[in-house]
Amino acid sequence: MERVPVPEEAVFRLVDAVERAGIDYAIKDGLALNAWGIPRASYDLDAALAVEAGDTVRALVALQGQGVEIGPHFLQGYVDELAGRGVSIVTAADLILFKLIAGRRKDWVDVDNVIAVQGVPERGYLTEWANRLGVRERLDRVLLEAAGG
Q1: Residues of the chain with pLDDT under 50
Q2: Coil, strand, or helix at residue 82?
Q3: CA nearest neighbour of 99 among 113, 110, 89
Q4: 21, 32, 86, 91: which could join 62 in a potential S-S bond, CB 3.0 to 4.6 Å?
Q5: Residue pair 137/130 in contact by the 8 Å Cβ criterion
Q6: Model pTM?
Q7: Which residues contact 148 (CB under 8 A, 6 or more apart)?
């Protein structure tokens, strides 16, 4: 799968959707770097959404209603406790996918750590999304290492 930089139209679709849903946001990571540093291609679209505690799923459903593709695991949400307070956290499988996309040395270590604690979470979901995100070879490498190969 060929990696293609994020088209401006995709950015504008997300911006239109969050604005119609009344959600405060900020574009971050690679695209923000283009505003503040030496421009480079960005292959994903990262945004921070400002939503009230416990309102994450409502915001994601609103964005989905505006045509933004939201993975089903984000809609399920996962709440963990941090210092006595519930916070929304991505699933273990989604964390692995994010780390595979980043692909830095520290990300590989993080993936190994997640698998050491959790085992391989949601193998079918990982495979489907690794294919869609263009990181299937990275996932296969991780799965081979996890199997002792």
Answers
A1: none
A2: strand
A3: 110
A4: 21
A5: no
A6: 0.56
A7: none
Kindly report the backbone phi and psi dihedral angles of residue 25, in degrees, each rounded to the nearest multiple of 5, phi listed first: -150, 170
Strand pairing category for 85-88 and 79-82 = antiparallel
Q: Which two tokens stand for residue 85?
A: 């307070």
The percent helix, strand, coil of the chain (3-state, each to 5) is: 55, 10, 35
β-bridge pairing 24-28 and 46-50: antiparallel
Q: Please name the amino acid found at residue 121.
A: P
Closest among 98, 99, 60 to 77, alpha carbons compared: 60
Q: Could you tell me the CA-to-CA distances from 72 to 4, 57, 91, 92, 149 in Å, in that order?
A: 24, 11, 11, 14, 31
Other Cβ atoms within 10 Å of 5 Cβ, number: 13
What's the pLDDT tens digit per position in 16-57? Answer: 888 888 888 888 777 876 777 677 788 888 888 888 877 888
Residue 25 CA to residue 27 CA, distance in Å, equals 7
DSSP code per residue over 10-26: HHHHHHHHHHHTT-EEE
